[in-house]
Amino acid sequence: MRLKLEFLHNTIVLQKSLVAGKIVSMNLKEIQRPIEHLLNETDRLLKERVKSNIPLINTINEVAPISKGKKIRSTLLFLLAGMNDSLAPWLAEIAASIEMFHLSSLIHDDVVDNSELRRGEQTLHNNLGNNLSVMWGDFLFISAFNALNNMNKKYLMDITLDAARLMVEGQIIELGNVNNFTVDHDTYYDIITKKTSSLFAAVTQIAGAVNDESLEVQKKYYQFGLDFGIIFQVSDDMLDIFSEISGKDRFSDLKEGKITLPYILLLKECKKDIIPYLSEKDGEKLLDFFEEYNIKETTMKEIVEYHNRALDFLNDFPDSIYKESILNLLEFVKYRDY
């Protein structure tokens, strides 16, 4: 039965991955090709910013190289800038700061959640301990905002600091609901909107501000980022349950007491007592219930709602290589399996 559902899902992916009559590229490197030069410059800046005469800092960066990662946020910034004809080399400075800020949040999250794996590899705190991990996260956070401040563009600090506050709020709300099997739909979306989507929204608002858009228009960019971030996070929560190749420790959310959307939907629909399986953190036994109640498909329907709103925003832009790539990026985050 599961094999049949996987085949059906793959068929849906193929059918849904049509934009303007073309099969969408699901290869991230191909999606990033139009802004590859700026991503390379972002990598160079990241490596430059963590060079130090302190040997231990260099050791930490060797254990967890700062330039690793998919750079979805930088990609989003560059592609949006390209779509509105405001692509400039100095955007890499902003992107490098956003990546450092994002990485600092991941490091702190891994410590708080006691996560063992990140992108298929041992987390930093598993390798070097909590103390050094927290310090490294702080170092990256401070370095990111110092670089943004040095750009002398007030809106960069205002927008990014607001995102930082929201991200902390989201983390606090999430911690307040650990192992809460009665957590509701609205609370889940409040958590992911603050913790994940707010940084995507900051990136997209910056793309609008760079082009001197009005505050009213910037709000539309911001909403697009929120929608994009929700697609990204709900998809990520599905990977945690349904993907065996994502690089994450499977069922890590459940093991950490996070009741994500698929679990919330299952608790709502399932007529059987599944609390014991949730309490025992037994994700494998829950898979049959997910299949029986079509939770994967129901979760995907919620993603589609945000995906359609994101498409409405993009439809206002003329066709370009950047628009094509950002449409592909939307499909990538929606259907990704890693």
Characterize the structure shown.
- The protein has one domain: Farnesyl Diphosphate Synthase.
- Helix content is 72%, strand content 2%.
- It has helices at 2-16, 28-31, 36-49, 55-63, 72-83, 91-113, 124-128, 130-150, 154-175, 185-210, 215-242, 252-255, 261-269, 275-279, 283-292, 295-314, 321-335, and strands at residues 18-19, 22-23, 117-118, 121-122.
- Strands 1-2 form a two-stranded antiparallel sheet.
- A hairpin with a 2-residue loop joins strand 3 and strand 4 (121-122).
- The longest helix is centred in the C-terminal third of the chain and has 28 residues, at 215-242.
- Mean pLDDT is 89; it is low at 1-25.
Mean pLDDT: 89
As a percent range, the share of helical residues equals over 70%
The CATH topology = Farnesyl Diphosphate Synthase
Order of helices and strands: HEEHHHHHEEHHHHHHHHHHH
- Unreliable stretches covering 5 or more consecutive residues: 1-25
Please report which band the strand proportion falls in: under 5%, 5-15%, 15-25%, 25-35%, 35-45% or over 45%. Answer: under 5%
| Structural class estimated from helices and strands | mainly alpha
Task: Please report the total strand number as a whole number.
Answer: 4
